[in-house]
Design a protein that fits this description.
- Pfam families: FAD_binding_3.
- By secondary structure, the protein is an alpha/beta fold.
- It has a single domain, classed as FAD/NAD(P)-binding domain (3-Layer(bba) Sandwich), CATH 3.50.50.60.
- 38% of the residues lie in helices and 24% in strands.
- A hairpin with a 2-residue loop joins strand 10 and strand 11.
Amino acid sequence: MSKAVIVGGGIGGLATAIAFQRRGWTVEVLERAPELTEIGAGLSIWPNALRALDALGVGDAVRARAVEEASSGIRERRGRWLSRPDTAAARERYGDPIMLHRADLLDILRREVPESALRTGISVTEVRPAGTVVHSAGESTGDLVVGADGIHSVVRRALLGQIAPRYSGYTAWRMVVAPTEPFVGIGESWGRGERFGYGTLADGRVYCYATANAPAGTETDGLPELRRRFSDWHDPIPALLAAADESAVLHNDIYELPNLKTYVGERIALIGDAAHAMTPNLGQGACQALEDAVVLARVATTEPDLTAYDRERRPRTQMIAAMSRRIGTVAQWASAPLVAIRNAGLRMTPDSAQFKALAPVLDWSC
């Protein structure tokens, strides 16, 4: 029986373990953290990723913990609509996007992987081309080593050497808020070099996120800074910030990877952020990791080598990363003349055109 050693026990790593198990492989998942947990943030699952979850056999379980994303759009800071996509037409063509807490998705995936296959508290120090992983508890060897270990991947370094992530130019805050009054909705608002977005979770809490242009490594004071920046924006943003808890605020600079020349070696393959860490502007980071998992398991089981995985996944994920980068660049414009041009262009763009532009992303199937 073939064996896959998967470095990283996040969403991508667990999805990969499930995909390989379903094809008859033995799996071993090595995770650096002492336990498998996820940060307090929401996650959009687009129809392409739902198809991947269905292929993994967990699509219905995920839908049961999620909420369908309601009509959304983009506003300016005072509340005027810039864009309201034709969500009904998009649903008819692609299916329903959903939103859930990242921890819920991780829990669903974790339940599908035997406890005996999960090894936490394991720090990987070296990966050898022949399929051996050297780590803090000794060594593990498999027919395939999968790098699901994020943007600072040790597995990627073994395959391609040191590759420095690239700073996007903006920083981000995320939090989950329990509003004082029932709230249903989803949306994103654009200012000058700043954005604020929100979406309801299945339990009634609201996932919020914000971005702002800033030098890499800029210190912030969390919730007070968010309130200074966004409390005068349109409703419901002030109320969400008023209901927020300082301890729930997560702050991270946004980095991405440059395009890699390959995702595979002889017995090594990269998935998720280890292969194509991208900005979050399309909500496709985790979605692409789920696609990777399904495709890699298929290729590794049915093809003589891994090059088919690289041919199938690298062009697609690098296209999506580039699209996300472009959206982020325009959304983060701070110049008043450029913002005026951007806003006018969005208002003049037919509502149906935006989802048509996403067809190459959403049309994917296993």
